[in-house]
UniProtKB/TrEMBL annotation:
Keywords per UniProt: Membrane, Transmembrane, Transmembrane helix
The UniProt record lists the keyword Transmembrane helix: yes
Transmembrane keyword on record: yes
PROSITE patterns from the UniProt entry: VIT
Full protein name: MSEP-CTERM sorting domain-containing protein
Transmembrane segments: 43-62, 74-92, 112-133, 145-164, 180-203, 215-239, 259-275, 287-305, 311-333, 353-374
NCBIfam families (UniProt xref): MSEP-CTERM (TIGR04286), PID_CTERM (NF046080)
Record-linked InterPro entries: MSEP-CTERM (IPR027550), PID_CTERM (IPR058207), VIT (IPR013694)
Ranges where the VIT domain occurs: 472-604
Lineage top rank: taxon: Bacteria
């Protein structure tokens, strides 16, 4: 431990943590500064200067001592203890003024006081250890028993002082009561920890004088106390007292139920208790083993470091509170044993190699954990890619068991800590969330979907009505009959000759139908015609017109939800896509009889007709001549084909063929044997043709080769996971879109239960792959044949009265000889991808806004068939949307009340854009909680610390009554 006197430790344990603390605090300050009153700004400045003064003073002292070649003096250690403790206490005392309660908690997800305590604690711990070493010279005789006696005298003294008769403290002014009790608590805590560490240090130095006593206390510190601590924390001992039973993966201070914690505790204790061997090779092996397990000892020291100031209260109020001190004592023992090994081995090996072995050993456990988490990340992201952004040209095969373990860890981390236990592993859970989940989360719905897909879990998803239908007509679940409604709708249209497109505004006025309703939310949806883009948005807030901020969609929705949960009557408005054609509008709050006004700008090439909450409006001049020619982007990659231009295209009839998707999932069992008979009863002639195709569908889609018999391949097929019908349909439609043949598939799904299938709401974004018909058929176990839609409500079907046998005519683009796409023969316009690859617009591209919108929506259509490009191209796509000001399915318009909300939006958006697109910001609309190590299970001990405050309040109450 004498190496702690090296001034280099100050750079690691003081300068680095303070720099991190300053960065975290500055990041929070930049978000909330516009909400802070002048008094709070002054406090921020004062504490920043104080922190900078402390940090620079320590850094200067460390550099001077290094230059002089002198160790850390005891005077510095004493001053550091006083100065940094005073800073922390003053900060905690002014915490509610530094970040007032008026600042929404979601903008400051972690209490800054926790940051201050966490990052100052290494300085205090080093100062304490350095003071112990300085005041315990090795050339003098010291008594360990006396130090232990003095250590445990401190809790006794504090216990007496805590329960002094109130009359003995009434001689002090009331304003002195709090500081007096704080000084008593801190002084007794420092004395307790100082003499405890000093006693352990003295015992470690006497290893050669009394071997039996040395071995006895090593067994106690390295084996008995750690094992007792794990058993108590996990609820196997004193379970009723700590609210645990040992039957669940929870614990008072965190989830240490893994067998590895017990195994490493035993191995660490055995290595530390081994007698010193005179054989250099055996001693080297022990030294390397102790180096590896030093990471285990140091981890638990870091975990309990924030609780050390409360340890004296734990000893007083909780019978087993002394177990909190085991990591501290174990660290003293472990460091001393390593120092003794190093000193012995220096006579046989070069010191630099021994130090390299020490560093390598210390990094072993962290690297093993990091490697495991990286594997978890790879497995999870492969599963997410396959489920949400697959490459349809690639064959996937995942490690299902590794995925199951990863999902179990994620579910444990999602459990909220309560007052008595936590399912999180301190620090490691944070590291896992950062490395595996990019500091985001995975919603329960997605976890269930992955388990059902790859593990064949039995959960049956409930049918969910499409969002655009749930929001249509403002029919949102839970709204009262007097919900906000549209009271006025006006339009403004002008033709922009420069971009040769219409620019129209929808101005909506909403109000409560019941004036008694407070804080209501108006919401609706509208269907946009093809070739119509959202180009701007506003919301009137506090008498001013606030333009919407175009942001990443998930971030905007998350910020909107946080504001709604503030209950402070803030004013957000949100405009975003629900699916490929429908946009959602939400405005909050609509209170009393006060009307709210909001507006949407639309860019459209031709006059269009829209319906908003049952009101139909015409945008543009209906007397204008129809657009008879297609309009393309400058690079000709995307083409807008108007209804009139489409009528001029040649009509063709493609030949249909049946494609059977057979449920081959693990849950289907023996039901697969009856498929042949059912298909023969309904599709005997169609299935017998050479053009018919069959695909076996479980977690993966396995096409049956035309030369093979599907019955034989189905019989020998090894089923994996659930019935992933959504993925099979997408792969089939992708191949149909890519094919240049004049044929198209009629899809028939054969399964015993469509309810167990993994199937989304619809596949409307792939509609260009099925221009003839959006219908597919489901042949059920009861021999029923139902027809379903690929375009909407894919799970909802109706009994089929007939099978389509006649080809449906479609339009060929651009002509029959050079077909690039087939368009439905209807009265609506279409967007056509004229090239196989659609590139995103580059900054400074000289195109009109309408043409930019055409390119963005064409790229979105291309990306629907190439989801593997989503992660790589998502950020450029979002940035292109920002530059053009055009709303896309990846972005949203958000109107915010103040600059702090906008700063929080930008901070969260930067975090989201760096993460996997399939990850979630939060489980639901509830505010997100950022877990920190001191959060989980800490309230049990913090309640003990609150005993002093409760006593003080009682005395004040009695004084007030008298």
């Amino acid at each position: 431990m004498r190496n702690l006197l090296n001034p280099k430790w100050l750079l690691l344990l003081n300068t680095l943590p303070l720099v991190l603390l300053a960065g975290l605090c500055y990041g929070q300050f930049t978000v909330i500064q516009s909400l802070l009153p002048p008094a709070s700004l002054v406090l921020w400045q004062q504490f920043a200067l104080a922190l900078a003064g402390l940090g620079l003073s320590t850094l200067t002292y460390a550099l001077v001592q290094l230059r002089r070649g002198r160790p850390v003096e005891w005077v510095y250690s004493a001053l550091a203890l006083v100065a940094y403790t005073t800073f922390a206490l003053l900060y905690i005392g002014h915490d509610s003024e530094i970040v007032p309660f008026a600042v929404p908690r979601w903008m400051v997800p972690t209490d800054l006081a926790i940051y201050v305590v966490t990052f100052i604690m290494p300085t205090l711990a080093h100062a304490m250890f350095a003071l112990v070493v300085r005041l315990t010279p090795a050339d003098r005789s010291h008594t360990a028993a006396l130090n232990f006696a003095l250590a445990f005298a401190a809790p006794a003294a504090l216990y007496v002082l805590m329960w002094l008769p109130s009359t003995m403290l009434e001689r002090f002014e009331r304003s002195w009561e709090g500081p007096l009790l704080a000084v008593l608590l801190i002084s007794c805590s420092f004395c307790f920890l100082f003499f405890l560490v000093r006693g352990a240090y003295i015992l470690a130095m006497r290893r050669a004088e009394d071997a039996e006593l040395h071995l006895l206390w090593k067994v106690l510190i390295s084996l008995v106390l750690p094992m007792l601590g794990l058993l108590v924390n996990n609820g196997f001992l004193l379970g009723n007292m700590f609210g645990g039973s040992g039957s669940h993966d929870r614990g008072v201070f965190g989830n240490f139920n893994s067998p590895w914690f017990y195994a490493l505790a035993v191995l660490n204790g055995l290595l530390l208790c081994l007698p010193d061997s005179p054989d250099r090779w055996r001693r080297l092996a022990v030294f390397l083993g102790r180096s590896v397990l030093f990471g285990y000892t140091f981890y638990f020291f870091i975990v309990f470091l924030p609780f050390l100031p409360l340890s004296i209260l734990a000893v007083i109020l909780i019978g087993a509170g002394f177990l909190m001190l085991a990591p501290l004592l174990l660290l003293v023992l472990h460091v001393h044993e390593l120092a003794a090994d190093l000193e012995f081995l220096t006579g046989f090996f070069a010191r630099r190699w021994l130090r390299a072995g020490l560093v390598a050993g210390g990094l072993t456990l962290p690297l093993i954990i990091t490697g495991q988490y990286l594997h978890n990340r790879w497995v999870l992201h492969e599963a997410l890619d396959y489920r949400y952004t697959p490459d349809y040209t690639r064959r996937y095969h995942l490690d299902e068991q590794a995925l199951a373990r990863t999902l179990n860890v994620i579910k444990q981390h999602k459990e909220r800590a309560n007052d008595f236990s936590s399912s999180h592993v301190p620090y490691l859970s944070m590291y896992f969330n950062w490395l595996v989940l990019d500091n985001l989360t995975l919603s329960d719905d997605k976890i269930t979907s992955l388990e059902q897909l790859f593990l064949g879990a039995a959960q049956e998803p409930e049918y969910e009505q499409p969002q655009w239908q749930r929001f249509a007509g403002n029919e949102r679940p839970g709204n009262a009959s007097g919900r906000p409604a549209l009271t006025s709708l006006t339009t403004r249209s002008r033709y922009d000759a420069r971009q040769q497109a219409w620019v129209s505004w929808l101005d909506l006025t909403v109000a409560n139908t019941d004036a008694r309703l407070s804080n209501g939310e108006y919401s609706t949806s509208l269907e946009l015609p093809v070739g119509c883009w959202v180009g701007d948005y506003y919301l009137d807030i506090n008498g001013r017109r606030e333009p919407g901020v175009l942001a990443e969609k998930r971030t905007a929705a998350w910020v909107y939800a946080q504001i709604l949960n503030e209950n402070q009557n803030r004013d957000p408005g949100l405009l975003s896509y629900l699916d490929a054609r429908h946009v959602s509008l939400r405005v909050f709050p609509v209170a009393g009889n006060v009307a709210r006004t909001t507006g949407i700008q639309l860019l459209h090439k031709e006059p269009v007709r829209l319906t908003v909450d049952g009101r139909t409006v015409l945008l543009g001049d209906s007397s204008a001549q129809p657009l008879a020619r297609p309009v393309a982007t400058p690079d000709q990659a995307v083409v807008y084909v108007s209804a009139a231009a489409k009528k001029a295209l040649p009509l063709v009839q493609r030949k249909p063929y049946y494609h059977f998707l057979l449920d081959a999932s693990a849950g289907q069992g023996n039901g697969k044997a009856a498929y042949a008979a059912r298909i023969n009863r309904h599709f005997a002639q169609e299935a017998a043709t050479a053009q018919a195709r069959f695909t076996l569908v479980d977690a993966y889609a396995t096409p049956v080769a035309p030369t093979e018999k599907w019955q034989e391949q189905l019989a020998r097929h090894e089923s994996t996971g659930g019935f992933y019908l959504d993925g099979a349909l997408r792969q089939l439609l992708f191949k149909a879109r890519q094919s240049s043949a004049a044929t198209y598939p009629l899809i028939a799904v054969v399964t015993d239960s469509l309810h167990k299938a993994i199937l989304g709401q619809n596949l409307a974004e792939l509609s260009s792959a099925y221009p003839e018909t959006d219908q597919f058929y489901v042949l059920g176990a009861d021999d029923s044949l139902a027809v379903h839609s690929l375009r909407s409500n894919s799970r909802a079907g109706q009994m089929a009265t007939s099978q389509p046998v006649l080809p449906v005519p479609v339009r060929a683009w651009p002509d029959v000889a050079h077909v690039r796409a087939y368009l439905p023969d209807d009265e609506s316009a279409d967007i056509v991808l004229n090239e196989q690859q659609v590139a995103l617009p580059q900054p400074g591209a000289g195109t009109s806004r309408w043409q930019m919108g055409l390119l963005l929506h064409g790229y979105q259509q291309w990306q629907a068939f190439h989801p593997e490009a989503t992660d790589e191209q998502r950020v450029p796509f979002v940035q292109a949307s920002f530059r053009a000001g055009i709303l896309t399915p990846f972005t949203a318009y958000l109107a915010l009340e103040n600059e702090a909300q906008k700063a929080a939006l930008r901070r969260k958006q930067d975090e989201v854009l760096k993460a996997n697109t399939a990850l979630d910001l939060d489980e639901s609309t509830e505010p997100a909680v950022t877990e920190v190590p001191i959060d989980g299970g800490a309230s049990l001990l913090l309640a003990a610390g609150a005993a002093l405050g409760i006593r003080r309040l009682r005395r004040r109450k009695r004084a007030g009554v008298s």
